[in-house]
Design a protein that fits this description.
18 strands; 6-stranded antiparallel sheet; 419 residues; binds alpha-D-galactopyranose; alpha/beta
C-alpha cells in the first residue's frame, strides 16, 4: 500500500470519522461556544414559558358574565360540547374557563378543594373531558386572602396552587385582586408567575387587578394579558367607556402581552344587534382577548353571526399583534379606529355614539395608507365595496360611510392595485 497505515489500520476512515465528529460538535455549539457551555442549562431560559404562549390574543369562554356563581361540571361539559358543535372551537375559541366559585376550602395540607357537590367528579376528570374535546381548560383564583366571592384566595399558597393546577392539567388561570388591599400587585403577580414556572406546565396567566396598579407598565412579561378597567356591564355605556380607557394603553400590547378590556357580553341580551357588533368590532380592533360570556348552549342566529364572523376574528388574531387605536375622534360622537395588519392592510372601524345615523369619512393619509387606489371590504356585510382612490388632492376623494346609531362600519383596506 502506498499510503501509511496506523496500528489501528484504515487511517483515512478514522480521520474522516474524527473530522465529522469535530464538525458535529462545532455545529451543535454554534460560533464561539464550547461544548461545556452548550451542555450547561441556563437557569433563566430553562424556566421561561414557551414564547408562543398567547402569541395572539387568547380566545375562549368564561362563565362569569352569564353564570356568575352558578357553575357546575354539567354546565362545563355541556359548554365544551357546544363549543365544538357550534363551530366556536373551529373559529378559534379554545379556552374554556371557570371563573369564581368553583372552590370551597383548603385541606389540612393547604391544597385547594373544588366544591364536592358541584364538581363531584373532580377537576382532573373535568380537565380531561375538556381536553378530550380539543379545548384547553382554565380556572380562576385571587391573590388576596379571599376571592371576590369570598372563596379561599391564593395568598401564601402560590406554589401549592400552581402545582395543583399543573397536576390537574390547567392551561389558563385568571388571577383576581380582591381582598389584597395592602399587597404589592407587581410583586405578588410576579411571584405567582414564578410559581407557575416552577410547576412546569405552560399556563396562560390572566392578570385581573382592573388597571388599579398601572399594569401596562409592568405586566408584559409577568402575565399574557391584564385587565385595564373595572368590570364590563351588558350595556352600551359600559362598552363605550371601557373602549376609551383601554385605548390609552395601546403601546403596551404585543404578541404574548395583551391589554384586556374584559370579557364579551355579546348574546347576553342587554344591547341591540348593532351595539353588540360595535362591541365585538372594537375588541377585535383593540387586539383584545375574545372570551365569550354568553350561554353557548343557546345562541341565536344573530349572536352566532357576530361571534363566528371569521373576518372580524382575523382582525383580532392578526399575527402582527398591534393594538389598534382611535385615529380620529370628531368630538360629537364619531370615532375612527385603525389597526394595522400583517399583510399591509388596515382594519378601520367607524363608530357612532350618537342617537342618529352619522356619515363618517377618512382620507387615506389619516389611516396610514399611501395615496392612490385601495381595495375596500366590509367585514360585517361580507361584501366588496370596490376600489376607492384617494390621491390626497381633493376633499371629495375621501372614503365615506353611513353608520347607524351606536353602530359600526368595519372595513379592511388593502393599498395598491386590486389583488
Ligand atoms: C371580579 C372580576 C370579574 C369576576 C369576579 C368574580 O369582579 O373583575 O371579572 O372574575 O371578580 O368574583
Amino acid at each position: 500500500m502506498a499510503h501509511s497505515t496506523t496500528p489501528h489500520g484504515r487511517p483515512a476512515e478514522a480521520f474522516v470519522l474524527l473530522l465529522s465528529l469535530a464538525l458535529a460538535v462545532l455545529a451543535a455549539c454554534g460560533p464561539g461556544k464550547t461544548a461545556k457551555e452548550t451542555a450547561a442549562p441556563n437557569p433563566a431560559t430553562a424556566a421561561a414559558p414557551p414564547p408562543a404562549l398567547a402569541a395572539v390574543p387568547p380566545m375562549g369562554f368564561n362563565t362569569w358574565n352569564k353564570f356568575a356563581c352558578d357553575v357546575d361540571e354539567g354546565l362545563i361539559r355541556q359548554t365544551a360540547d357546544a363549543m365544538v358543535e357550534t363551530g366556536m372551537l373551529a373559529a378559534g375559541y379554545k379556552y374554556l374557563v371557570i371563573d369564581d366559585c368553583w372552590q370551597v376550602d383548603r385541606g389540612p395540607d393547604g391544597r385547594i378543594i373544588a366544591d364536592p357537590k358541584r364538581f363531584a367528579g373532580g377537576m382532573k376528570a373535568l380537565a380531561d373531558y375538556v381536553h378530550g374535546k380539543g379545548l384547553l381548560f382554565g380556572l380562576y383564583t385571587d391573590l388576596g386572602t379571599k376571592t371576590c366571592q369570598g372563596r379561599p384566595g391564593s395568598l401564601g399558597f402560590h406554589d401549592i396552587d400552581a402545582a395543583t393546577y399543573a397536576e390537574w392539567g390547567i392551561d389558563y388561570i385568571k388571577v383576581d385582586w380582591c381582598n389584597a388591599d395592602n399587597l404589592d400587585a407587581r410583586k405578588e403577580y410576579t411571584s405567582f408567575r414564578d410559581a407557575l414556572r416552577r410547576a412546569g406546565r405552560p399556563i396562560v396567566l390572566s392578570i385581573c387587578e382592573w388597571g388599579r396598579n398601572d399594569p401596562w407598565n409592568w405586566a408584559p412579561g409577568v402575565g399574557q394579558l391584564w385587565r385595564t378597567t373595572a368590570d364590563i356591564g351588558d350595556d352600551w355605556a359600559s362598552v363605550a367607556w371601557i373602549a376609551a380607557a383601554n385605548n390609552l394603553h395601546a403601546d403596551a400590547a404585543g404578541p404574548g402581552a395583551w391589554n384586556d378590556p374584559d370579557m364579551l357580553e355579546v348574546g347576553n341580551g342587554g344591547m341591540t344587534f348593532d351595539e353588540y357588533k360595535t362591541h365585538f368590532s372594537l375588541w377585535a380592533v383593540m387586539a383584545a382577548p375574545l372570551m365569550a360570556g354568553n350561554d353557548l348552549r343557546a345562541m341565536t342566529a344573530e349572536t352566532k353571526s357576530i361571534l363566528l364572523n371569521g373576518e372580524v376574528i382575523a382582525v383580532d388574531q392578526d399575527p402582527l399583534g398591534v393594538q389598534g387605536r382611535i385615529v380620529i375622534d370628531r368630538g360629537y360622537g364619531g370615532q375612527v379606529w385603525m389597526k394595522p395588519l400583517a399583510d399591509g392592510s388596515k382594519a378601520v372601524a367607524f363608530v357612532n355614539s350618537t342617537a342618529g345615523e352619522l356619515a363618517q369619512y377618512v382620507r387615506w393619509s389619516q389611516i396610514g395608507l399611501p395615496p392612490g387606489p385601495a381595495r375596500v371590504r366590509d367585514l360585517w356585510a361580507r361584501a366588496e365595496l370596490g376600489v376607492h382612490a384617494d390621491t390626497g388632492v381633493r376633499f371629495d376623494e375621501r372614503f365615506e360611510v353611513k353608520v347607524p346609531s351606536h353602530g359600526v362600519v368595519l372595513v379592511r383596506i388593502w393599498p395598491g392595485a386590486v389583488r
